[in-house]
Amino acid sequence: MCGIFGIISDKIVDIQKLSKVSRVIKHRGPDDEGFLLFNKDDGEYEQYCGEDTIQDITYLLLNDTKRFNAAFLHRRLAIIDLSPTGHQPMTYNANKLWITYNGEVYNYIEIRAELSAKGYTFNSYTDTEVILASYQEWGTECVNHFNGMWAFAIWDSFNHIIFLSRDRVGIKPLYYYHKDSKFIFCSEIKGIKTYLDNNLTLNEKKIYEYLVRGQIFVGESEDTILEEVKQLMPGSNLVLNQNNISINKYWSLTLTRNRLSFNDNVERFSELFLQSIKFRLRSDVEVGSCLSGGLDSSSLVSFASNKFNKRFHTFSAIWPGEKCDESYYVEKVNDKYQCYPNAFTPDLENISEVIDKEIWHQEIPLAGSSLLAQWFVMEKAKEKNIKVLLDGQGADEILSGYPLYLISYINEMIYSLKWNELYKYYPSLKKNGYPVKRFISIQKHKLFNQKHTAFPIKKKLIDKYIFNTKYVTPHKCNYLPDFLKDQIERTNLPGLLHFEDRNSMAHSVESRVPFLDYKLLEFTVSIPTEQKINGALTKIILREAMKDYLPEEVYNRFDKIGFSTPIENNLFNNGNALYNNYLDSIKNSDITNMDLIELEEINSHNIFAIYTLAKFIEIWK
Hints:
- The chain is of the alpha+beta class.
- The protein folds into 4 domains: 2-201 and 229-249, Glutamine Phosphoribosylpyrophosphate, subunit 1, domain 1 (4-Layer Sandwich), CATH 3.60.20.10; 262-399 and 485-564, Rossmann fold; 405-483, no CATH class; 572-620, no CATH class.
- The chain is built from 24 helices and 19 strands.
- The model is unreliable at 467-476 (pLDDT under 50).
């Protein structure tokens, strides 16, 4: 896991700006630093060191050369092959191919063996070199052979192209800027912004989206918080050729409906889950795990501990005495598998400073405080020198775990005329309460075309951004797998992966998400709804697969807390010091000057989210 940056232009690379970008994204890779400067047309190149380059690498120190119109920058977080042979940018094929790469291709061992049988040789034990050899063998189709998470750029000097790729579901970020003869890419928007001296425009449409919908949906389009910066969408390749870019979507989630029995699906799920964990335990440094006490992370730790005879270092944010506290379940998992527990209650004394840091790293406003719990977990992992963490992200989306999904489940029964099934499960759904009420509320919005905003936006602005009603329409809501596909590719999951990447990399920690192995994902989404949900009980495939591994107390849990915190309720009560400080900040901010918010409607429930928007605009305007 690393930080990458590149610029390809018809003008000489600005070395001072390049060095500044390296410092700005250092958190993504503090272990090593490397630069490749080159001319995209004639193939001339030179490698350089930076202030953080490891001592074994003895290239010239980056200097103000006037010879090159292109550059690759790499910040390394060393995970696989910790030796100097893992230094990047890396070359292959007699210096014809060069790469700067962020991520992990977990099946690199199998691909390496396949390529070795074809006559390929390797100088390192890295997955990076395997990517280069794969590109030489299969061209841009190489990504179809990869199982993992990645964002990389390859300079193919033989064909005079730059090839960029991003993994299937967008676990790793990749942004680019293309104007006139200048093409820039980076792992984070701040790198592009830094090189361009902040001469970019805040995207006001994203501000309205946040105010109306409650968050910025990063997966719905290539647009970002800055008008001139785009993201390479998940599952996409980009080729830069003679200043022209072409983008190809190489993967999207195809919905199929498997016909296996429940028991066969449980068995196949277990096999794929095991293989996914096996891949994600490949590392030359210690691999720990997040553990919230919920079904997903508990399943991950329990299954992996049992199958691989491993004692995990686990990390858990707990809140004793609060409704959201799950320390009881955390303890049960840790005790059962003799884990090395790191359960802690975050210190909130400097919470304002943490929130401001979080906004800078996230590059979008924070809609809720749950992100802060994840921030503290990653911070604790860094403190304990654990560089890799497994996490349960994605399980809810592939296994229909959120209560919200029960709405689509109800619709599926109604519109598919499954009256007996609806009658059978209605008492359970009614007891759960939330889905039925929400279902009626959504139908009410649909029938009367009601407009609702997440935050108290000025009334005159409501029509400027149309209320999003797409989940009300039959083609989205009447078949649960359709809804899951949208959640995975466009709405919920892309945002969660964005948060996870920024929170982990802010602390130089690599986060791995076994539930999002693409083979496991494709299979699990295909499982029929009736095998995933039983009344108001969700994830029954996972529960059945894990029943021999989970502590009984966790297996029998039917509540869902999520990554919740008491921070907003405890610290932002109307009238306390922090509340008043944030309210003053909002009143003196650009969102007040822009006349966006009804200030008198700010309260303890929304002040956190509105403040983070104000702070975000201050940082990014």
